[in-house]
From TrEMBL:
The keyword Nucleus applies. This is CRC domain-containing protein. Keywords: Nucleus. Belongs to the lin-54 family. It holds the Pfam family TCR. Residues 296-422 form the CRC domain. It comes from the Eukaryota.
Amino acid sequence: MDTPDRAAAAPSAAARAELMDGCQPEKLNDEILGCDWDDLISATSGELIAYDEDHKGVQLAVSNAESCGFLLSKLTGDGDISDRTHPSSSTQTYYRELLMDEDQTENAQLVPDGEKNISTEEIQDNLYEANGSIPTGYKVETQQQRGMRRRCLVFEAAGYSNRIVQKESVMDLSVSTCKGKSPVQNHSNPGKTPSPRVLRGIGLHLNALALTSKDKMVCQDPISSLVPSSATQQEAHGKMLSAGENFIHSGSELLELQMDDDCSAGVFLGNDHDSSQSNSPQKKRRKADNGDDGEACKRCSCKKSKCLKLYCECFAAGVYCSEPCSCQGCLNKPIHEEIVLSTRKQIEFRNPLAFAPKVIRMSDAGQDITGEDPNNTPASARHKRGCNCKKSSCLKKYCECYQGGVGCSSNCRCEGCKNTFGKRDAAVSTEAEEMKQGGEEAENCGKEKENDLQKANVQSEDQPFLELVPITPPFDVSSSLLKPPNFSSAKPPRPTKARSNSSRSSSKAPGAVHSQKFTKIANSGLNEEMPDILRDDASPGNCVKTSSPNGKRVSPPHNALSVSPSQKGGRKLILKSIPSFPSLIGDASSGSSMNSSESAFNTASPLALGPS
DNA sequence: GAGTTTGAAACT
DNA sequence: CAGTTTCAAACTC
Ligand SMILES: [Zn+2]
Ligand SMILES: [Zn+2]
Ligand SMILES: [Zn+2]
Ligand SMILES: [Zn+2]
Ligand SMILES: [Zn+2]
Ligand SMILES: [Zn+2]
């Protein structure tokens, strides 16, 4: 049961309502059902967080959880899930509270100050996390932009991802693996990798950590098997609590699964994203094929930065460190929220774009993503700042462009660039489009990379992966999403060992496919237009564009997904919201994400996430 | 798992 | 803004 009215009592109802607004639950259900949870989930496994300075800032929301919960509830029929498991936790409730009172929420959470001190960090962490999860600040308004946050999460993303997944990903993904741990994974298909597709616009954060959902995705089918393997649960609980306890509770098992990724950490950047998605029919995989499973999610392993510098992937991605992290002296925990936030501000002050997504894609316009044509390539995406590779030829993850699954641009200062994604000019302004076409080559020339193109075409095999970060613009930005090339764990091309050596030439079986892709790129693709939106400069405001073109789901998925790269984990998806990236949003006014967010949140605006 | 390589981030 | 140092990931073994 759900009782509709009471949030507390029947969170589900509430949630639904909200969801409905945003996501149109019904449809979703169908879609979802049709599709696969797995995919969705996996894709979604992100985390939402709302950030409020006043309150403290960080909150995690759980994107996944929500989504899961939400879905689950529907699936289950009633959505009792939440009820069943833990009353308190129900996601809905959570939201409700958020809506209702920010402050209260906090209190509710309780993170008692005293407790903080208490015991060891671990405890703290847990508590904190838990607390964190409960976000205070959030306000979700119902529909409207403000309410953006909904739980729709990543559906879209998932959707696109799904396909990919279906194809190959399954294998790959399943592999879990964390970092490079198992080479095996890679093996997967090098060839085939699905070409990377990108959705429309996108913001990627290289930083984003991905969740590693990995095989575990257990969540996958909530329906069929809610219960995850025991292990998962445990992990989930223990680790994940942070993000979602609340959520989790609701779906206890289910949610957990999601969470289990472990990676779920809270995000402090805040923002959420919503997304909606749907899609994907089939269920695919579930666990890992491999069997291994993994776990994988590793996150940072900082030794000296205390996870308060951009060196730390977690911090850079706007998330708190969590179990999977093996950092030392870590201060990037909810417990130390104040420190984290203040540090973040400082960094943003120095570089407003520091936490902005590093890779952004513009959609090409026309294409829709939904489709997901194979063709889509991330071609359009590009790294904002470009790389400065000297020795890697932009063929390894050392290169942020490659890591992000995007080609190098004129912004790059790389030497000997052989980026398999190609290189294009950065984009200048809108005009760039035209330029680009021709420009493409030009650039190459300019850069010196001529050959590259060819190679690229040929080679395309590799897949980088990218992490997406959704930007959640204040209003909707569905437009900008990026699809990762491979979604999930893409495995990077494993050059050496991996499959064949010839990675380039030989194995690339998929070459064909890629070729198409490239072709596109080369021909027209390259030129992507870059909407200003993404651009740093570009004012985000503009960007926001309307909804997603895609048609499918309107809802604005603002979230971001990040896929983790190959090696790392299978994939981690995180939804991260970006506070406000200056770049994206409007930087200036909004200022740093933090700031803007704060002010916004606190005072007025409801946009919570949205940047204002 | 230790050790090396790499390029971004941070610092000067 | 360039040069150097610091840093942790990516990669290698
Ligand atoms: Zn760290
Ligand atoms: Zn960490
Ligand atoms: Zn840490
Ligand atoms: Zn590069
Ligand atoms: Zn580059
Ligand atoms: Zn390059």
